[in-house]
């Protein structure tokens, strides 16, 4: 059964399943360097549809483009960025969601913590419609998206498109 | 090599065409261009043909231009196979707002169904 919200908004501190203290907060301009560092060591096998870019020199330009608009939250441990979740506006008044958790922090509930707080931030920002694409073989991500209320809206391609509407806060 | 280039009337396709022209000049490929209007938009096929003709002329390439009728994906595959092309070149899709690659339904159909070699041009 999918969670229906309301979802918690950042900032927040939680302990992951490995006992690590994880701080979730909105990203600021000062976080660019920390984000670049996280993506620079991101497992290439876990890239999703071409992002993060494989070439290190293309990570910062890509980040600057996406950080320019939308809602971005990060999770940190001991002052290092370990995950990034974002909502980037499209031209139809909707927002595209993506979430990246560094491989050293996966399987510990951090993706779930992050996406719930991203949806909480979306409610604060009065964002109503959110969509995403996910490769159909990425089962952990599919389960996570379903658990917070995403439904598949298009399934006839290599990647699935999922969407959800958020009730106002 | 005989190369068939599928051009959907869009900006993404003009990059495809330019790259295919560049490659054809390097490798001395024989190009044929198949054009079709973007499905969801009411694009003028005459305009697409004129744009493609200009690009080819500017590059000094003499290539036949065919208008695709009916379903673009299956028509492209059928034409490539029927006329014995060595390679079919199509666009590799576009990017979502946050930069994810998104393979269009035509590209995906061609990849899965063509018996000729397919090149995704970016």
Q: Keyphrases for this structure?
A:
heterodimer, A: 169 residues, alpha+beta, Aminopeptidase, eight-stranded mixed β-sheet, globular, B: 122 residues, alpha/beta, Rossmann fold, five-stranded parallel β-sheet
A few lines on this structure:
Chain A is an alpha+beta fold and 169 residues long.
Order of helices and strands of chain A: EEHHEEEHEHEE
Number of strands of chain B: 7
Strand sequence of the main sheet of chain B, in spatial order?
A: 3-2-1-4-7
- What is the CATH domain class of chain B? Alpha Beta
Radius of gyration of chain B: 13 Å
The CATH level-2 architecture of chain B is identified as 3-Layer(aba) Sandwich
Mean pLDDT of chain A: 92
Radius of gyration of chain A equals: 15 Å
N-C termini distance of chain B:
20 Å
Count of discrete alpha- or pi-helical segments spanning 4 or more residues of chain A: 4
Structural class of chain B: alpha/beta
How would you explain this protein's 3D organization?
With about 170 residues, chain A is α+β, with helices and mostly antiparallel strands. Chain A contains four helices and eight strands. Chain A has a domain at about 10-125: Gcn5-related N-acetyltransferase (GNAT) (Aminopeptidase, 3-Layer(aba) Sandwich), CATH 3.40.630. Helices cover about 25% and strands about 30% of the residues of chain A. Chain A has an eight-stranded mixed β-sheet with strand order 1-2-3-4-5-6-8-7, sandwiched between helices. The model of chain A has no long low-confidence stretch (mean pLDDT about 90). Chain B is an alpha/beta fold. Chain B has a single domain (about 1-120), classed as Rossmann fold (3-Layer(aba) Sandwich). Helices cover about 45% and strands about 25% of the residues of chain B. In chain B, the strands form two sheets. Chain B has a five-stranded parallel β-sheet with strand order 3-2-1-4-7, with helices on both faces. A two-stranded antiparallel ribbon of chain B has the order 5-6. The longest helix of chain B is centred in the first third of the chain and has 17 residues, at about 10-25. The mean pLDDT of chain B is about 90. At the A-B interface, helix 2 and strand 4 of A face strand 6 of B.
